[in-house]
C-alpha cells in the first residue's frame, strides 16, 4: 500500500488540511507540537476506525468544530482506492471506492483488504517510535514468534490465546525457578520427606533389596508414564486429523476436478463483452422505439372537413381573423364591473358620494393648507386653554393661603393647650402633673404666636398672585385671537364644502377621500362612454358575422356576440393548429425515417463488432460466451479454494490424512488410541499401586510408627505430585503441539526474519555485530570479534539499533502477506549523526513498501533529497 493523498476535515489540531505524498519514502519534518503524532493517529484511524469515548484522549476530536474525519487516497495491488471516514457508529461512517474499477465498496471490503492486520497489530508491527525503542531489552523469542504466527497463519489468534491460557495454567502449577506454585511446594516437601524416610530406613537389613525393587519399579513406572505421554500426543494428533479431514476432502475433490475450459476468459473479456452487448441492446431498443414513433405519426390524421374549408378560404379567413381583436373590444363595453365598483363606494361613503367632486389640482394645495392651519390652531387653542386652567387653579390656591394668614390667633391650637393643662392638673400627680402643665402651655403658646409668624411670607404670596393675574390676562388674549383666526378658516372651508359638495363629510375626511373621489369620477365617465359604444357596435358585429357564411358547414354561430366571436376564434385556432400539426407530422416522419436508417446502420456495425469479439473467444453466440465465462470463473474459484486449503493443511498433514479412507477410519483410530491410552494408564496405576505396596512393606519393616507415617505421607504426596505432573505435562504438550502447528502455518518466516535482522543490524552498526540469536529468555548478539552479549548488556543506542533492525526485517518479510506503510515516529533521537544517517539510508533502500519517517530534528533533512521531504509547518494548519 502506498498512501498518495491525506485530506483532513477535522482531527486534533488539523482541519481542512491536505498532505501530498508522492514518493515511497517520505521524511516528514515538524517541530514539537507540529502534529506528527496526530498525523500518525489520523492514518491509523482512517484505516482501522476511530477510537471510542472509552479512550477519549486518543480520539483527537477537533477543537475548531470542523467535521470529524477525512480522506485517504492510496495505491494497493495496482488499484487506486479512495477512503473516507467521518464521525459515526462502530468506528465511524466509511465510504470506500475502487477508483481503478470505478466500484463502490463497503466497510467489510476494507477489512478484507487489511486482513489480518488490525489496529493493535498495525501499531505492533508497522508503526514504532522512541517508546518502543526504549523497551528493546524486553524482547524475547515468544513475542517474535507470536507476531509471525498472527500474520502467517489465518485464524491463529484463537490458538495463540489458547496457548497463553495453557501457559498461565502451567505456570500456576509449576515454574522451574518458582517457589509459590503448588507443584513446586509439593516437590520441596517431597524432597524433605524423602530425606526423613532415608534416615528412618537405615536400620532395616532388607533395605537394599526393597530399594532395588523400588528402583526397578520406578524405572518401569517412568517408562509407562512416558508411554502415556506419547500416547496422549498421538491421540491429540489424531483428534486434530478429525478436525482437518473436511479440508482434506475438499482438497481431494478440488484436485480431482479437471479444468475443461479450453479458453480462459478474464474479467477484462467480460467487461468488453458486457459493453458490446449493452451497446447492441441499446441500439436495438432505440431502433424499436423509432419504428413505433413512426407508426404512431402515420396513424394521426387531421379533420378533413375543417382542413377543406380552411384551405379553400385561407386568404379570406386570415383577413377576417385579423379583425377579431378590434371586434372583441366592442363586446367589452359592459359596465357590470364598473357598476359593482361604484356600488361599493356608495356602500362605504353613502349615496352623496356620486354628488361630491374631487379637488382640482389648483385648489388642493390651498385646501390642504387651510385644513392644516385649522388643525394647528385647534391644537394650540387646546394647549392654551389647559394652560389657563392650570394658572387659575394656582391663583385660587394662593388666594386661600393669603386669606388664612390674615385671620389672627389660632383658636384650635389655643383650646388644645388649655385642655391639656386642665387634664394634667386634674388627673396626673407628681412630676407628671408638672410635665403635662408645661406641655399644655406650649401648645396654647403655639396657637397664639403661629399666625404672627406666617405673616412674614404674606408679601411673597401677594407677588405670585400679581404675576398669575397678568398670565391669566395673557391667556385670555391669546384665546380671543385664536377664536378670530378659526372663524376665518371655518368660513373659507365652508366655501370649499359648498363648491365641491362635501357637506355630508367632516373636514378630517376630505384629504383621505381624494383618491376614492377620483376613482368614482373615472367610473362614472367610463360607464357613460361604454353605454354609448354599445349602441354603435351592434350593427358592425352583425355585418362581420354575415361574412362567415362560407364556413357554415363547420362553423355554427350561436349565442351572444361575444360567444360568436369566441366560436370564430376557436375555429381559426383549430384550423391553424391542424395545418401546423400536419406540416409538423410530415417533418417528424422524415426525421424519424433518417433516424431509423442511422440506427439500423449502427446496429449492423455493432453486431459485426460483437461477432468479431465472440470469434476471438472461440464462440459464436452470446449464450456460449456467458457459459464459457462462468466456467472460467468456476475454475478460478476452484484454484483459489485449493490455494486456501493448501495454506491450512501442510504437506505432512495431507500425507497423514491420505492414509485414511474416511473420517470414520480416523475416528476409529482415535477410539483405538483412547483404548490404548486407557490400558497404559491402567498399567501405570497398577505399577503405582505396586510401588505403594513396596513402600508400605519398607515402612512395615521399620517397626516404627513414625517411619510408617512418613512412608504414607510420601505415598500420598507422590500421588498428588503425579496428578499435578500429568496436568502440567498435558498443558506443555498441547502448547508445543499448537506452537509447532502455527510455525508450520507461518511457512518458515521466522528464519527469514532472523536472517534479515542480522543483515540490517550489521548495516546499522557498520558491521560491528555479525549475528543475532533469539533464545527462550532473551536476545543475544555476537560481535565481530566473537564475543556474545545479551541485549541488556548493550548500550542504549546499540539496543535501539537492534530493535530498528528487527522492525524493518519483520515488515520486509511479511510484505508478501500484507503491505502497509511503515511509520517511524522520531525513533532515532538517541542516535549519533553517523547512526542516524545509516538508519535513514536503510529506510530509503527498503524498496518493498512505503516508509514515512517523522522527525523533529531539522538536521535530518540533510540525509534525503528535497523531493522526499515534507515540512508540516508549511501546511495550512489552522
Automatic annotation (TrEMBL):
Keyword Lyase: no
Keyword entries, A-Z: Coiled coil
Record-annotated YhaN AAA domain positions: 1-201
UniProt-recorded name of the protein: YhaN AAA domain-containing protein
Transmembrane segments: none
Residue ranges that the Swiss-Prot or TrEMBL entry lists as coiled coil: 183-241, 635-683
Record flagged with keyword Cell membrane: no
Domain of life: Bacteria
Annotated InterPro entries: P-loop_NTPase, YhaN_AAA
